[in-house]
Amino acid sequence: MNEVISLNPVFPFYTTLPILLVLAVLFIWIEIKKNHKFKTIRIVAVAVMLFALWGIISRPNISYETSTSVILLTRDYDKKQVDSVIEKLSNPAIYHLDDVKPYRKSVPVKGHQLAYIQEKLNYVIGNGIPLAVLDGLDTPNFVFISAPVSSGITNLHVDKPVVVNRESTVSGIINDPSVNKIVLKGPGSREDSVVNDKGTQTFTLSFRPKQEGNFLYTLSTFDREGNLREEKVPVTVEREEPLKILFIQHFPTFETQYLKQFLAKKNSIVLRNQLSKNIFRYEYVNHTNVVINKLTDKVLSGFDLLFIDTDSYKDLAGSEISALKQSLQEGLGVILLLNESPDKIRGIKTLLPEFAATKTDTAIFKLTGNKKITLPVWPLAPKQDDALNSITKSGTKVFSGYKYHGLGRVGFQLLQETYRTTLEGDSATYSLLWTELLEKVSRRKAKGYETIFKTSEPYYQDEPFYFDVIATDRPAILIDSIPVPLAEDLYIDNIWHGKAWGGKSGWHTLLVTNDSTEVPFYVHDAGSWEAWKSSRTWQENKAIASDTVEERTTEEKKPVSPLIFYLAFLISAGFLWFAPKL
Amino acid sequence: MSDSKLYIGQLKRKYVALKGGEVLLWSIAAASLVYGITNYFTDDVTLKALLTVLGGISVLMIRVIQLQLLHINDSRIISYINNRYAVLEESADLLLKPNNTLTLLQLIQKERVSARLMEIYPAIKIPNRLRQSLLLAVISIAITFGLTSFKLSTGNNLATDDEQHASKALPQQPLPANIKNIEIRIAPPAYMNQKDIVTSNPSLEIPEGSTVTWSIQFNDEIQDGWIVLTGDSIKMSKQKQYVTKKSFISSTFYQVVWRSENELKASDFYKIEITSDKAPEIAIHNLPQFNEFEYGNKLNLAVNSTIVDDYGLQNAYIIATVSKGSGESVKFREERLKFTSPKAIAGKSVQASTVIDLLKLGMEPGDELYFYVEALDNKVPSPNRARTETFFVLLQDTTKEEVSIEGGLGVDLMPEYFRSQRQIIIDSEKLLKEKRSISKQEFNSRSNELGYDQKVLRLKYGEFLGEEFESGIGPAESLPTEEDDHDHEEEDITKKYGHVHDTENEHNLVPEKKGETHSHSHNTKDGEADENPMNAFLHVHDDPEEATFFSQSIRAKLKAALTVMWDAELHLRLYDPEKSLPYQYKALKLLKEISNDSRIYVHKTGFDPPPIKEDKRLAGDLSEIKSSRDNKTLSKNASYPSIRKALVLTEALLSTKEMKITENDKALLLQAGTTLSSLALANPGQYLRALSLIKSINDNEVAPEKLRSSLQEIQKDLWKAFPKNTSSPTQPAHVVHALNQSFIKNLEASKNE
Fold first, then answer.
1. A27 touching B (Cβ < 8 Å)
2. What is the pLDDT of residues A265-281, one digit of tens each?
């Protein structure tokens, strides 16, 4: 605290000072002339009197800097932390949010009032400013001194999307040693459970929905005394989208016949075998009859996945190959079935990764669990390549994988006679060998409008959330049939930003009116998911907060009391009057 | 002086210890007896413990008082030894008296007696019955043990066990308010020999064929009452209570419906679950499925089987089929054999045994016996039957084995393509001999090559197995005569070109007998044809039963051979021919057996293509080949649409705060209920709660505060009703949108630059 003295003179300084100096010289000279006692004291008294007079006229002030910092106390703040911050600051103002217990003489403040003191806000102690309030501050700049993470489930993630009849998972972090067991219940019954033996740990629970739609699953936690706490987990189950698959082969094989059977339940398939040069045998499963004499862009655009054997590939005309490559660029998935080593086939090298010959023609590997799977395999191994994405592999040996070509992918399966696993009754292994490859390789669904929620769950009533829409033209968004304004991104084309507020608790729908895409979301009850909510608040505050903030001060002036000068004047003048009489 | 007092004291303590032990044993005996007896009559643990302790303590007290164990003093001991030992001259009491009270004479006498007591002290015996008491205790503990184990088999308690079991298995369901009392008597069918069960729980689990009698007492006067079953309802007659009865053979559920004040009312649904009378279980312990006998051994086959049934057995026997001859001339004869012990099959569990004398069955070398045990229980009207798997007995034909060759399998027809099992064995042995002289690399490579040969051989035999599966025995039967000719030809070719290794008679040490055997078989065939004119037109193989027997044994052997070959190959591939050799020998043995068993069989499975006309061959004429199309629709609509709709509805209702069920919602729930009720029939006891609740909601009988929990329960059952569907690949969930499309395009462009 630097103190500076400043003056607030009644008359201008330059006028009073010469007069006072003249008076001082005059009075001192008079006193020297007088032949009385106490000469020295009288001279001092004259000096004091004139100084007092100067003080009365020029009214001196002492000015100093004071702190104007504000400390905001939020939920779960620690008193010790407040004490140490106060010690550091000179006389800070302490506020507490109105749902937090006060600290000594702290002043209660409502969320919306924070905007008034935001510029002075220096320290936020505790769990942080709630999101709804934080959203209302323009330029928050504060140091966040956080409370320890609250106990309970502090994070939760549900797979997106959840597809009917597929195993999906709910994963999260629990930070509560008193919780013994976490159970996920579906609409029907218990789906999965996990024991919490570490206190703080990540957990994963799996479930397999049987019906599409919006469902509320329940996550129950049991503490060691057996008390139950339940929270809702909103799950949107999407339906399975069938694939359109085209098989082009020179001759039918067991492998493709079994693949056809495997895929036929849910997808539509066209299978073409060549009987003679221009004579084909067609099989259609869940598909209308079409004749495919030639591969063209138009034909291929009707399919998501093409299985083609290398013999047929070799026989493709130049125009067909270029149509195939064009379709690949546009997103078609192709799986090449090998009839011979691909090294010998011209033009195929660019599609597949480079292969090196290996010695073994038998693959012994494990997929899940301890069951060993033995299958014949092409004596080839793809060379290490950044563009190669492996799917089935054992150690460093890759048996199946794919490579990107534009938006499309070309996959390969080196394992042969995989249908053996089905014949042995192990259809689960067969499914594992093919499902991922097929799904990774096939054409992705093109969507004109994609909505991405920027604010992570959970959403609450009267709390804002932000979302982006990726669209080629201006999207129109309705949330529960109320239009939401969007702002286009300043730098990136095709991205629009939006902000909305959680309505009443329950399911709500975000509707993109351009193509009627519906995105459901769930607004939770106010008291639910406390720990998750506070951990999210904590994260948001942490993200905004600065490491250090300069202490905010203002200069303040304090006049020196004129009484001192009056008294000094009176005493010194009195003494001068009284001295000759002594 | 004091010594003698000490002795007396010791004697006293010994007396107390012995008598005390005796009394203790008595009380243990009594306590255990009391426990045994009370345990027989009651299951109450506290009562048993109380009575046991009481019994033990009372006997202890009585005996202690009787023997005055608490009041034993020295004088009693003194009087005892005075009486018992004359040498003490009745003066032992002097020992206890202080010297100053005694006269001189008494002192002298005391001195003498004291000395004598010291002399006789080791010989003094205290009378006791410790041994008898110990015996008593042991006997009573044994009795108690017997009583407790006997308790389990008392019929009395079994019934209570059953009732307990029933009450445990079925939670008591609440009755509607209008029904005051319900009494249900379940009478199992007579043959089960079980007591009637009376219960008040309307959910029933009853033995198959039981008759159920309902006696229902209503709170108010009612006009009519029915028991409504699925698709049927029976009216209750009014006696003291409303009574009706019916017998059940399949699981179902029911409702009590009554009319009071001209209004129809119904109870919840209750299940009737049928526990069916199971078929008997038969096990044969002492026999493997395949048995081989050498002719000349003791040809007796002991069959010991355990037959168990839940309610009782009626009969059991062995069905034995003897197959004689081989190839085309095979003959079958079936016999029913009775068990020798016990004479008559009855009861719930029977250890039945008999000895099959193969000679008595008329078996000769080379013949085979197939048999199985069949048992019938006492169910009426038609008993449950059960049978074991078929057991095979082969009487080895050693003479035939000597002359057999592998040629019959058709495998040796092409010796240049692959090596025979014998050749692989010879090569393996050779390789092992040379192991030291050759490099490791060469050893490994040769072992691997042998492994490859083994694989080729296995695949070749595997084809036989495969063909056998696909084409069966049928097609080849149409050309029996041609095949016979073929048979001759092939054998000739083998002899001419094949080098026969795999026979015992490899170096022609014994003259070949094949021709003889063959002609012999022809003879018998002719002979039989004479005997029975039908034989000319009959193919014995046509009988599916017999065909199965025949193919099964060979198929099993062929499979076994392939498995062994796998192992042999494995060890060869692992560069370990030594370990592989035992498997190779085993494979060889099995192959020989197969070739002996089934020469005809193998030839019959061979494919004879129809002759192709020479002028059509390789003409390149494709005019008759046309493009063809095959169209199938395999995708199914989602199962149980009404349940799916109802499930979405319940979820939507449950997620709202204030539920309002409209008439449309009710209709949807009712539709789902209809589907659910058909499922409930298939799975008795399930979904009943949901059905009752749907009905209640439809009738507006559910209180608003209970609506949420009711809907939750309905939803639970609806969800349960879905079958678990497997997943198959579908379109990936990720999407392509404008932004990542242009991103990838630009990426590709930059890659090409």
1. no
2. 888 999 999 888 778 88
